[in-house]
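Holo model, hypoxanthine. Inputs:
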Amino acid sequence: MTGDSISIIRTRCPDARAWVAFILGSGLGGLADLVDGASIDYADLPGFPQVGVSGHSARLVLGKLAGVDVAVLSGREHYYENGRADAMRVPLETLAALGVEVLFATNACGSFRADIPPGDLMLIRDHINYSGRSPLIGEPTDRRFVNLTKAYDPGLRQSLTDAATSEGIDLLDGVYAWYSGPNFEAPAEIKMLHMMGADAVGMSTVPEVILGRFLDIRCCAVSVVTNMAAGLGNETISHEHTKASAPVGAAKLQRIILRFLADLEAK
Ligand code: HPA
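Output:
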């Protein structure tokens, strides 16, 4: 399937190549509109997800952003949709074949930390795979034994921290816990995850970063905090609330991304 999607992309965009790939989370789709290039619906790409979550679109955008060749996966399939932790494997393999060396995942999350409140961003330093699922279950080769020691690339994290500083935006780092969803967490689970060392919780990203490392792609990820996690805030947690709140952090994230890419290009 990966081969099929690559040949369709090459037919539709003969010059297609990308260095940095983005995966856009709930309410963060605006970045795709800034790319100067072509767009292909996932429906036309074998093995790409048929995205069914409101707040997510379903298209691959290839082109230039801040002078850099990028691929934007606008929309992801989550584990909770069909029970497939490897749902993003074909898209990521396809992008690796187009030359992608950097994966930048974004998501919405619930924060555990008063100093990273809703509307702020969290740079993911490490993760806790609380779902216990791996996208590499069933992978027959020894490549499945992926080392996650520096899964969130220290060099990219430094570049993102520098970009945030240049833009005057707070970007504290923290540990992201992957919860399967689709229900939100119980307050007792949040208490437990916090005790385990997590700073925020969400329903995505971790399987994609595992796949990214499997494909030897350098990874980084930023969470947009849409709410305090269950039991820690006064707002009523809901998907509607996530979609309504994401644009505040998304606007900051967009500025950091444009600066990060311009700096990468200049190096
Ligand atoms: N939990 C899980 N996923 C989320 C949350 C949350 O509180 N907020 C946004 N995505």
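The helical segments are 2-12, 30-34, 79-82, 89-97, 154-167, 187-195, 206-214, 239-266. The chain has a mean pLDDT of 94.
Archived with the compound record.
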